[in-house]
Amino acid sequence: MPEKRPAAGGLNYPGIGGTEHGTAPAGYPRVLEEAFLGNGIGVYRQVAAGILAWELQRRAGLRVRSDSPSAEPGARVVSGFGAGPFRLNAPCQVVWVRQPAPEGMPQSAGFGYGTLPGHPARGEESFEVEINGRGEVFLRIQAFSKPANWFYAAGGLVTRAAQRYVTSRYIEGARTLASEGTPRDLHRR
User: Fold this and answer.
1) How confident is the model over 9-51, as pLDDT tens digits?
2) Distance (Å, rounded) from C-alpha 87 to C-alpha 73?
3) Which of 38, 73, 96, 178 could form a disulfide with 5 if both were Cys (CB 3.0 to 4.6 A apart)?
4) Residue 46 lies in a domain
């Protein structure tokens, strides 16, 4: 069962936790991207560990600052890109987490986080890795969002293109994680 913490601390959108169930509030466009990553429990565990340690964000080229070394309910993270005065920061708070089970298939692991004031959007995004009963491993990224203010709404085409680009970088990061092998410490679990 996923861990949850009560919604608090400035989450600024309706439907908190919706990405856990694949739902989005009315008026919030939904994004769903899935990618095949490989086969086997080792690949699954490698990618799960990376997702929960903010690696998809880092491998997407984002600078990551968090109050926790891994995703846990209530953890706050600020990811950003750009440099100096042109840095765009995106503060979020983790709203749900699913840890990998010790054994068995199918299963999934990952987390969802929601936007906080100062983020260019209002909404939620989740990152999950799933292994099915045949041992096939997939990445699933879900999101629902809309611009936080008129300024970001005015750049709609640019904003959507940026979201597609960052999502493609997340997928590439997951594929890299999947190809790196299984760390020894995951075998001991």
Assistant:
1) 589 899 999 999 999 999 898 889 999 999 999 999 999 999 9
2) 26
3) 73
4) yes
In a domain, 37, yes or no: yes
Name the token pair of 95: 């709203």
Tens digit of pLDDT for each residue in 117-132? 887 778 999 999 999 9
How many domains, the chain? 1
Domain assignment present for 180: yes
- Give the residue, 83 or 1, on which the prediction is more confident: 83
pTM: 0.82
Domain membership of residue 54 as a residue range: 3-19+29-187
